[in-house]
Structure formats: C-alpha cells, structure tokens
Automatic annotation (TrEMBL):
Keywords associated with the record: Oxidoreductase
Annotated region described as Disordered, given as residue ranges: 1-30, 71-112
GO MF annotations, alphabetized: oxidoreductase activity
Polar residues bias: start-end ranges: 1-17
Residue ranges crossing the lipid bilayer per the database entry: none
The species this protein was found in: Acidomonas methanolica NBRC 104435
UniProt keyword annotation of Lipid metabolism present: no
Keyword Oxidoreductase annotated: yes
Protein name per Swiss-Prot or TrEMBL: Aldehyde dehydrogenase domain-containing protein
Domain Aldehyde dehydrogenase: 14-84
Length: 112
C-alpha cells in the first residue's frame, strides 16, 4: 500500500535505496488533474491508433534518438531509483545496455 493510500493528500518521496536519501517529492494529483491526465491519455491513444505505420515508425525513431541523447542521465536516475544494480556498481552500464536494446544502436553518421 502506498503512503498516499494510507494518508490521502500527502506527498510521497523517492528514496535512494543505497543511502535512504530523499531525492524527489511527488505531490498527489487533484481529482481534476487526474481527469485531465486521463483525457489526454485517451486522446493520445486514439491518435496513435489512427496513425499509419510510417508515422509510428518516425515517432519511435525520434523517441529512440531522444533516449540515446539522455542515456547517461537516465541510467544515473534509474540507478538512484534502485532500478539497476542496487550496489551502485555497474548500474549505469546495465541501464545503458538496456537502453541500447530498446533504442537500438546509435545510427551511423551520414555517408558511412
């Protein structure tokens, strides 16, 4: 059970599992904010469903490029969140490897 289920209206926090350090605060959404998020999600799902495979491929390639650009920061954040090696040793390397699986290798420079 989450802390917001135990104490409605209170913030929750992300903790570094290795140190116990709080590094992010998460305030609960109001009912109106939640409804807006759900409506936007439904709209996005409809646009995705109606898009062609060419449009989807283009979006996924751009998403992969953005992930590659942010790879080191994402690996660091995932390690801090305990989503990689909890000891901290090699966590970033493991996350970079996972991101390569998801995103594919960096594209070769033009002309190669």
């Amino acid at each position: 059970m989450s802390s917001t289920e135990l104490h409605p209206g209170t913030a929750s926090f992300s903790l570094n599992p290795a140190t116990g350090e709080r590094f992010a605060r998460h305030d609960p959404l109001s009912d109106a904010d939640l409804e807006r998020v759900l409506a936007r999600t439904a709209q996005a799902a409809g646009r995705w469903k109606d898009s062609s495979h060419v449009e989807r491929q283009s979006l996924l390639r751009r998403f992969g490029a953005a992930l590659r650009t942010a790879r080191d920061g994402l690996a660091e954040e995932a390690t801090r969140n305990g989503q990689a090696d909890r000891s901290g040793a090699g966590g970033g390397r493991k996350m970079r490897r996972a991101l390569r699986l998801v995103c594919g290798p960096s594209p070769a420079p033009p002309g190669r």
